[in-house]
Amino acid sequence: MFGRRADGRLLKKVDPIITLTPYLMPMRCDAQVFLSYQLDYEKLARYIVKQGAEGNKFTFMELIIAAFIRCISELPDANRFIANKRLYARTQLAVSFALLKDTAVEGAIEENTVKCLFDPRDTIFDVAQRVSTAIAENRREEADNSALKLAKLLNNPILANTIVFLARFLDRYGIMPKYIMDASPFHTSMFITNMASIGMPAVHHHIYNFGTTSLFFSIGSVQRTVSIGPDGQPVRKRLLPIGITADERICAGATYAKLVGRMVELLNNPELLETPPETVHFDEGIEYSLPKPKKSRSRKNQEQSASV
Predict the structure, then answer these.
(1) pLDDT band at 260 (very low <50, low <70, confident <90, very high)
(2) Cα(301)–Cα(307) distance, rounded to whole angstroms?
(3) β-strands 111-117, 86-90: how paired?
(4) Is residue 8 a contact partner of residue 89, using CB atoms and an 8 Å limit?
(5) Beta bridge partners of 242
(6) Bridge partners for 107 per DSSP
(7) What span, in angstroms and rounded, lies between the C-alpha atoms of 138 and 98?
(8) pTM score, two decimals?
(9) What whole-number distance in Å separates Cα of residue 132 and Cα of residue 189?
(10) pLDDT tens-digit profile of 265-293?
């Protein structure tokens, strides 16, 4: 309330046009913009195979998350959100995603939703460990995280309407308890879905009006195409389509352009994600609250192990 929130800090130095935009487009569904990109599948696949031979298991989703985190360390403006028509800088760097749970019943489909916290200094090794740990903890059939427990609690329509109304009210005025925000996958820097895992193309997923999600990424099934090579001959290529939905109110269009351009550059050269960034930038000096540090198997550790 009065500009104070557990998950963000009210920004003061904001372009007047950006300040006005939430009043013209009060909901995220008013302000959605859609982008489509195609990544070089071959480069990413070769990198994943190469790292696998060295004992590091990476996924396409982990690489995209790592690239996003690196970009936020350079462009903190993209880690903002709108609440009650006011612009906030996040106090966390978080990514949410849904996963399929392991079930004992053949053909049964159950989902769980996970939110991971990251350090803007994380490398691809750190990201892979955080994501794989979260997946292992939440994929088990008996695993019920806070979000899933709350969803099961709201099976009664009357109770669901009451609780959701109250949650929206508390969230709007910034007085929702922090532990609820921490449990909510909708209070996140970016939501990502891997449509390729279920054989679907990339989609432009809506961004939720509830919560603070400002970006939604979608990974689609591999596409095969033919292009003209440098010698003028046709070349077969495989592409990894990405669908992006963004809340255009949180920053200038040029910032989004830099974000996506930089992500494509990093994913075309994933080796750049193996080392921490030299400098990390924070929005108006606001540093993120970071998760507890976890040991990661860095390239340096690998080299030391190999030399023993």
Answers:
(1) very high
(2) 10
(3) unpaired
(4) yes
(5) 37, 219
(6) none
(7) 10
(8) 0.86
(9) 19
(10) 999 999 999 999 999 999 887 888 666 55
